[in-house]
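QA checklist item 7 of 12: single-chain prediction sanity check.
[x] sequence parsed
[x] length recorded as 205
[x] structure emitted
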Amino acid sequence: MIDWLTGTALTAFGAPTTWAEVLGFGTGLVNVGLLVRQHILNWPLGILNVLLLMLVFWSVGLYADATLQIVYVVLGFYGWWAWLYGGARRSRLVVRRTTRREWLGLAAAGVVLTAGLWLFLDRLTESTVPLADAATTALSLLATYGQTRKLIENWWLWIAADLIYIPLYGYKDLWLTAILYVAFLILCILGLRSWQAARREMITG
């Protein structure tokens, strides 16, 4: 199965594209579309998506991104549970804004994660893009945490990550994935507007 997934499905922009990347493209688009709509099925589909992308990233030397997918699986199951039972009295979560205390915690975690991963990738792996790989990994982890808690500002973190991911994947000849992240960027902007509107509607009744 892994051999088939890592086999060439098509050629995009002169570079071979694996079945894992093609399937990751499709599941990724549907996953983020469901997330924009706050649909609970974004979580199981997202878990499948990150397992596919794990194979893609490892094969091109994006080791931090590949390892990150394992964390995404764990966060995927947590987010699935939290959206259903993480609210008051084990109710469904509702969209809310990030508090100042949460922002400080996220900022500190982001600096530590980026610095630690950068040093690790630069000194102990063959990564050719250690800083970009580390920064996107840190931003993605913070954004996913915000997503599990339905924090509106998770979309800003995803937007920042996508703006780095797009040229990074192009540099690695993952052109289909780069195009996917352009679509993700557009969906993130739509998601931000949708969640802001949901919050306003909840406040005004």
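[x] summary fact logged: Residues 62 and 181 are 16 Å apart (CA to CA).
[ ] second reviewer sign-off
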